[in-house]
Design goal:
The complex is a heterodimer. Chain A is an alpha/beta fold. Chain A has two domains: about 100 residues, Elongation Factor Tu (Ef-tu), domain 3, CATH 2.40.30; about 100 residues, Nucleotide-binding domain of ferredoxin-NADP reductase (FNR) module (Rossmann fold), CATH 3.40.50.80. In chain A, about 15% of the residues lie in helices and about 35% in strands. In chain A, the strands form three sheets. Chain A has a seven-stranded mixed sheet with strand order 10-9-8-7-11-12-15, with helices on both faces. Chain A is globular. By secondary structure, chain B is an alpha/beta fold. In chain B, helix 7 packs across helix 9. The radius of gyration of chain B is 18 Å and the shape is globular. The longest helix of chain B is centred in the last third of the chain and has 15 residues. Chain B has one domain: Aldolase class I (TIM Barrel, Alpha-Beta Barrel), CATH 3.20.20.70. In chain B, the strands form four sheets. An eight-stranded parallel barrel of chain B has the order 3-4-7-8-9-10-15-16, surrounded by six helices. A four-stranded antiparallel sheet of chain B has the order 5-6-14-11, with no helix packed on it. The chains are: A alpha/beta, B alpha/beta. Chains A and B meet through strand 13 of A and strand 5, strand 6 and helix 8 of B.
């Protein structure tokens, strides 16, 4: 883990409230290797009263070019500052943090479903790319309220087969991700999920019904990001554990959902 | 430079890390050089394992944060058997923060820690605001504070630091009582009792409703209390509360502290203690000072 100053190379609004930020290291070799599902803690500068870093999952990474991509939803003062960064600005991050999603070593024929909702789709892109690279056949199932809330859809489509649910029916199937017809039509080997808590709980329920292994990425409110302050704990079958260090990804078997 | 003496403890510089903000030190191994720290004060340790309070335990507030962790730890036996062997050879002072809910608990934990050769001191936490029997009941009256310190003093043979609560009418009275009961040093301040509310949800943010406030927001209160206590007792005072920079730490020394603890700042920058030591050393150079005890107010 290290503290790094990264330079904003590109900043693009991808919805009314979300921004895609490309961050570059001064030299590609200084950017540490990151795993899908890991996150960074971004220091928020120039924002009176805001003290703590903001944990943001890694959306994409290009090790050869030394770039890291974040997908940031504007929800408060800290994320607003981050969304307002422009090319050339400096962003200070601690990385890489957390455990990341499990990855099969021999993935040939492995058919996982990657279920994301809202800005929770962010870490699934890097995961899908890595699974494809390992020979798996991942399917993205992405949910949003309306077609306008689907973030970076074309990038998911480029990376793997992509299915969509919107609550208003503006794109893909109408309804929630857990109501998508693919879940009845096809059998998946494993489910990865990240998104709003009610969505992930519904996905976990479905996985249990269908007897499919499943892991979920949590976003409990954090301070240190290192497993020191014990603020972000999740009540698991093993007691209170730090989401920042032992997670953010947990097998649903460990969760009391 | 001469080391700083706190009881029998020798610190190579005045910078310690505050309990509960630095884990057991190993969490920060990628970011700090332990050779450049006066010491680390590890997580509050109780006689029996504690699960702590339910989530949510933390709320960010203007220039600060509230926490209500509730002394989550695996108990002193686990500390002694599992954690101690992995941290006892860190090249800095490893101090254990001792918490309890009865005098017997405090004594039992202190006795167990006393047997650990490479732990030169304990910090007695009579000021945790986040558990019903977290010691704050002891820490808010001079008699209560003195009774627990006297009992632990009789059972513990190394340096005894007592951490004071700011949630009292007169912290000077408590400090004097603790000194009288045999403490080698006092550290202050623990967190200030506070509350945060989610207006949209119309609910408290913390599961425990109230929690302990830390961070830059508390620094002026901490400085005032350190100033008052340092001028009222003869034992060394360790100052903490909102230290984010070397200048902040120097202010505590000017207020009368012999050493400082850095807490919440570790969450903002995991390498902050290294920067603080650099900045403090630079301050001494700029002011033509050669020893830490020269950092005093102008007459």
């Amino acid at each position: 883990m290290q503290v790094l100053d990264l330079i904003v190379r590109d900043s693009v609004a991808v919805s009314a409230t979300a921004t895609r930020l490309v961050l570059a290291a001064s030299d590609a070799s200084v950017l540490p290797a990151v795993l899908p599902g890991q996150f960074v803690e971004v220091r928020i500068d120039e924002t009176p009263g805001v003290l703590l870093r903001r944990p943001i999952s890694i959306h994409d990474c290009d090790a050869a070019n030394g770039t890291l991509v974040l997908l940031v939803q504007r929800v408060g003062k800290g994320t607003a500052w981050l969304c307002n960064r422009r090319a050339g600005d400096v962003v200070n991050v601690v990385l890489p943090l957390g455990n990341g999603f499990s990855l099969p070593s021999m993935a040939s024929g492995f058919r996982p479903l990657l279920v994301g909702g809202g800005v929770g789709v962010a870490p699934l892109l890097l995961l899908g790319k890595e699974l494809t690279r390992r020979g798996a056949e991942p399917t993205f199932l992405l949910g949003a309220r309306t077609e306008k809330d689907l973030l970076c859809l074309e990038r998911f489509e480029q990376a793997a087969r992509t299915l969509v649910s919107t609550e208003n029916g503006g794109a893909g199937e109408k309804g929630l991700v857990t109501q998508h017809s693919v879940l009845e039509k096809e059998r998946f080997d494993h489910i990865y999920t990240c998104g709003p808590l009610p969505m992930m709980k519904a996905v976990a329920r479905l996985a249990r019904e269908k007897d499919i292994t499943c892991e979920a990425s949590l976003e409990n409110r954090m301070a240190c990001g290192l497993g020191a302050c014990l603020c972000c704990v999740e009540d698991t079958v093993d007691g209170n554990v730090c989401v920042c260090k032992e997670g953010p990804v947990f097998s649903i078997d460990r969760l009391k959902w | 430079m001469k080391p700083i003496r706190i009881g029998n403890l020798e610190l190579r510089n005045p910078v310690l890390t505050a309990s509960g903000t630095f884990g057991y030190g190993t969490e920060y191994a990628d970011f700090v050089d332990f050779n450049r720290l006066g010491g680390i004060i590890v997580k509050g340790t109780t006689l029996h394992a504690r699960e702590g309070n339910p989530y949510p335990r933390m709320a960010e507030t203007p220039s600060g944060m509230l926490n209500a962790v509730g002394l989550q730890n695996k108990g002193v036996a686990h500390f002694a058997d599992v954690i101690y062997p992995s941290i006892c050879d860190l090249p800095t002072n490893v101090i254990v923060n001792v918490s309890g809910s009865t005098i017997d608990d405090y004594v039992a934990v202190a006795e167990r820690i006393d047997t650990l050769e490479k732990i030169p001191a304990i910090e007695l936490n009579i000021s945790c605001p986040n558990v019903k029997q977290g010691g704050m009941a002891f820490g808010v009256t001079p008699d209560g504070a003195a009774s627990v310190v006297r009992a632990v003093r009789a059972a513990y043979h190394k340096t005894l630091i007592v951490k004071l609560s700011p949630n009292v009418t007169d912290i000077v009275q408590i400090a004097r009582a603790v000194e009288e009961a045999g403490a080698d040093s006092v550290s202050l301040i623990n967190t200030l009792l506070g509350m945060a509310i989610d207006a949209e949800k119309r609910r408290p943010i913390l599961s425990t409703v109230t929690g302990g406030l830390s961070g830059p927001a508390v620094k002026p209160v901490a400085l005032r209390m350190v100033w008052q206590v340092a001028h009222a007792v003869h034992i060394p005072v360790i100052g903490l509360g909102g230290i984010m920079s070397g200048t902040d730490a120097i202010e505590f020394l000017l207020a009368g502290a012999k050493a400082v603890q850095v807490g919440t700042a570790n969450f903002v920058d995991p390498a902050v203690t290294m920067h603080i030591v650099d900045e403090m050393e630079d301050y001494l150079r700029r002011h033509g000072m050669n020893e830490w005890d020269e950092v005093t107010m102008k007459d």
